[in-house]
Design the sequence.
């Protein structure tokens, strides 16, 4: 798999390139957003490691650009930054980032997170069900398309996985920790606001079907067992 590292510090680029390549991946590197764009246009990229503070722009703006382009929206993004700022973290997730790692970070932990994000994107060969219908909500698992009352709803890859997890376990309460493990792909001390933010955005996007994503106070969330 081709992993693109967008990082302006040469030492960090070299460290990441060395360690990630040892896992069997091809590592492409860019020290600026301009160089990164040229690589993405010419190469098939499986995952992006994205620094926020870059010499020619903001990593958050670049993440937004990737996630709003139909050609690149499915590329997973892990944000790397020296900032330990709750606001930046929430904004990153709202823009569709799949994970967020604060510098200085453990290379071993980063590798585990990369594996978890890539695993989420794999198509499971044992999935028999290719479409789920719930009232006016239709989920096409193979194409990752969601429809409400025959109108297609645009979801990020993470929002799609969150919705699919809730519908798959409908009628059963999912704690925030369970959702972090099943949807984000690992257990870690991530603020519960991450889950809450994604649930809120998902409800808004689902419109009339958003009411079926229910909050169970003090526990977590569940999707209604049956439609009205």
Sequence:
């Amino acid at each position: 798999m081709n992993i693109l590292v967008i990082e302006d510090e040469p030492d960090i680029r070299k460290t990441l390139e060395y360690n990630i390549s040892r896992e069997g991946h091809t590592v492409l590197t860019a020290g600026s957003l301009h160089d990164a764009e040229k690589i993405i246009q010419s190469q098939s990229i499986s995952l992006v490691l994205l620094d926020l503070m870059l010499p020619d722009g903001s990593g958050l703006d670049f993440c937004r650009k990737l996630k709003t382009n139909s050609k690149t929206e499915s590329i997973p993004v892990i944000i790397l930054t020296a900032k330990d700022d709750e606001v930046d973290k929430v904004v990153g997730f709202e823009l569709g980032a799949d994970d967020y790692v604060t510098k200085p970070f453990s290379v071993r932990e980063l590798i585990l997170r990369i594996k978890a994000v890539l695993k989420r994107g794999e198509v499971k060969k044992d999935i028999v069900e290719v479409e789920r219908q719930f009232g006016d909500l239709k989920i096409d698992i193979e194409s990752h398309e969601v429809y409400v009352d025959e109108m297609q709803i645009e979801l990020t890859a993470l929002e799609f996985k969150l919705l699919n997890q809730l519908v798959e376990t409908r009628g059963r309460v999912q704690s925030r920790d369970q959702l972090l493990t099943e949807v984000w792909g690992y257990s870690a001390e991530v603020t519960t606001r991450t889950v809450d933010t994604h649930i809120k955005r998902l409800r808004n996007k689902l419109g009339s079907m958003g009411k079926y994503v229910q909050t169970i106070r003090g526990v977590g969330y569940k999707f209604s067992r049956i439609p009205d």
Notes: Residues 123-128 have pLDDT under 50 and may be disordered. The two ends are 44 Å apart (CA to CA).
